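Hey,
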Amino acid sequence: MKKFLACLTLVLTFSNSAFASGWTGYFTIDWGKAGDYVSEKWDDVTGWFGGGKEEKIPASDDILTPHIASDWDKLTGNLTDALELRDKNEKLPKKTWLPFKEDQRSNSKKINALLDSALKILVGGEAGDLRREATELREKTARDKVELDNLRNKRINAPEDTYMFWKMTKKDADKKISRLEEEVKNDEKRLAEINSNLTASLKNIGLELDNSQTEILLNSVTGDDLLQNTIVFSNVKTVVTKLEQLSQNGTNSFEITRRYTGMYLVLNDLLIHTQEELVRKIDENYKPKLNVIKSEAENLRKDALAKSNQNIYTVEQRKAFANNAKSNEITIQVSNLYNELLDSQKLTTMNSIKSLRLNRDLAENTYRTVRSSGELKGLIQSGLSVIDSIDTLTMPELKIFETGAMRLEFEEINRRLKK
């Protein structure tokens, strides 16, 4: 069919061309070859209309993951561009009020955009894809459960039958509810599979977790950041190892050495950026929200406790107030444990930032002096040791789910923190 369309296009083109008709006596068209040729061009056109011609994915590298190998040119291009802007930053004024004139602030925004683009590549791969799928599926399941509740409410006053085709009947509601319940069930089953696969995938990149710890990570507000950082660290390690290999090709070129040392320096900046972003989220987002939740629970606990001892309320009402006080006490306990978890995560992250900054100082000094490729090898090997030793790649101890009520409260606090 494709070849037929290609030949038809060629026939119509030549039949409407006076120039072409003048040459019919001088050559004969090989319609088979012509069809193949135009068919190939047709692929190009349809590829462009479909969002771009599909690129050939290079074969998997012996060190790089297939995902990183396929995006190697784009990744190194982003790192190289960020390096050039980093060099340019030294010559720019810190701040300028002149319109359309660059300063270090505007230049830094461009660098961060390139680092974000590189980061999108470095969070990929098997573990990254599973993490993303789990997040999307959890959000979908939450939306579907809300929709189920809406349908059950609509069913209450839905008619048994109606001539108004746009109005939902009880039978229609039952069908939708049944379908959505089955979908939620299948999604939750798929989430359990992803959880197990992600645990295995994380183990392959050096993060030892069991399925319950992986589930906690996927549910907690910092867990997604921790998983992302772990995946990024693992991918950066393979990229750095590849840069070391490329630098040892015997070229002895100062320009090549400068380029690889510079890319290594930018990768250090990227790792520091991801860690600092987690600290910022803890300080500016999660902890303030957690304090609001804890303060609200404390006020409700005091109010409920006071009213549970007032005789103006019935015995049943006083018991209900007492139960409310206990529920808010659990919320306070979980909030305190959550706060300890955030503090622990912040501390380990700050320690990793300290190590990365020291390593970055060495990388920057080496880049500025443009040393030999032999010295670059020593630098990279030292850097790999730093990456291997960073505590952020270990799972903080969690002692939260002592009871089912505490687990439910933990999930509710997560929901409120993510708003």
